[in-house]
Amino acid sequence: MARGPTYNVPYRRRREGKTNYRRRLRLILSGLPRLVARKTLKHMIVQVVEARVEGDHVLASAHTRQLVRDFGWKAPTGNTPAAYLAGLLCGFRALERGVEKAVLDVGLQKPSRGGRVMAVVKGCLDAGLEVPCDPEVLPDEDRISGVHIAKYAEMLSGNPELYGRMFSKYLEAGLRPEDLPKHFEEVKARIVSKFGRSVEVEEVG
């Protein structure tokens, strides 16, 4: 009886370009929970996930929507400061659940140096969660707190029409973009204090 060549149909998520199973296997073999950072145009989703036989189990998570709902964040939720705060929040929640170390899982993304995914990692590190990474890829403090956004707003302040168009979301929420670094420190202090810590709030810019 003639037999044709054996053909294995790839997993659905591989066919859809959603999962690199070889990379996922290496992460699982580390024996550590995975710090999963996923970004959209408007939000950042952060989870600490443990692989189990029955499937992934989320140990802790944070979404940038929660910054608005629970901590009074007024700026857009798709920028670097919001990503850092989501990482900080998830890091504290992971520690509360007994997780002390996690390995970064970026999925199919190609994270950029100093970008939003790396801001999430910096937030987790500042919370006390250990995440192995090269410090060189993390954003600096000015970028994390939004100083670059405040400086750009100051530069555009001489053109009211362009200023209003570029920063409409800030203005609708009652926040001057020039005040973003100060607002960032206030929201960060609220997150830190919720978990029984203290932080010194400094006026920036």
Overview of the structural elements:
The chain is of the alpha+beta class. The chain has one domain (18-194): Nucleotidyltransferase, domain 5 (2-Layer Sandwich), CATH 3.30.420.100. The protein contains ten helices and four strands, in the order ααβββααβαααααα. It has helices spanning 12-15, 21-29, 64-71, 80-96, 116-127, 141-145, 147-156, 160-166, 168-172, 180-194; strands at residues 34-39, 44-52, 55-63, 103-105. It is globular.
Brief descriptors of the model:
Nucleotidyltransferase, domain 5, alpha+beta, globular, 4 strands, 205 residues, four-stranded mixed β-sheet, 13% strand, disordered C terminus, 10 helices
Number of DSSP strands? Answer: 4
Please estimate the helix content: 40-55%
Number of helical elements: 10
Strand content: 5-15%
Structural class: alpha+beta
The third-level CATH topology is Nucleotidyltransferase, domain 5
- Main pleated-sheet profile: 4 strands, mixed
How many domains? The number is: 1
CATH architecture: 2-Layer Sandwich
Uncertain spans: 199-205
- Globally, the shape reads globular
Radius of gyration: 20 Å
The N- and C-terminal alpha carbons lie at a distance of 79 Å
| Strand order in the sheet with the most strands | 3-2-1-4
The sequence of SSEs as H and E is HHEEEHHEHHHHHH
Mean pLDDT: 86
